[in-house]
Amino acid sequence: MQISENKNKWSIDKAHSNLEFSVRHMMISNVRGRFKSFDGDVRLDLNNIGNSAVKLSIEAGSIFTNEDDRDNHLKSPDFLHIEKHPLIRFESTGVKKSGDKLDLEGKLTIRDVTRDVSISGELQGPISDPYGKRRIGFDGGTSIGRKDFGLTWNMILEGGGLMVGDNVKIDIHMELTAD
User: How crowded is residue 66: how many other Cβ atoms within 10 Å of its Cβ?
Assistant: First the structure.
């Protein structure tokens, strides 16, 4: 049985969704942050997952690490250069499911540099909430090399090592409602 087209469209419940990241700081700890503003187009065919597709658009200027000076530096030309590159984008090129595991292949664009990425996670649901809406959840993530996207700023520490690690861990927590 095929799900009708409107059953395949899901909206991001932003009150229950987060796009988070972490990166090594001074080789001794991790700095965590998130993006406060994002939107997307999610088409999820639960009967034939290969017919699914995801497009996300993230406002680069909505980066938040709980430290204004760091946030301003991350928005500057040294990193995201939000005046020139206001959006970060992801567009899936393939979706596969095995049990509760969901794998998305796609193109991630940061600073007008596009690279292939794989996102793996767990799909939860669908369920009906107390208000009669269908909901589904996804918790997953990936890791990227920031230098692969032109995010090359760094500083050598006095005792050796680097101020900012190259590997960025991305965590995605999405709750979606059926339209």
Answer: 10
The CATH class of 5-178 is mainly beta
Residue corresponding to tokens 């996102």: 119
Q: What are the domain boundaries of the chain?
A: 5-178
Structure-token match 């970060």, residue found: 88
Q: Express each pLDDT in 109-127 by its tens digit.
A: 999 999 999 999 999 989 9
**Ranges 27-31, 40-44, 116-120, most confident:** 116-120
Of 2, 71, 4, 69, give the one whose Cα is nearest residue 34.
71
Question: What separation in angstroms does the CA of 167 have from each of 30, 46, 143?
Answer: 11, 33, 7
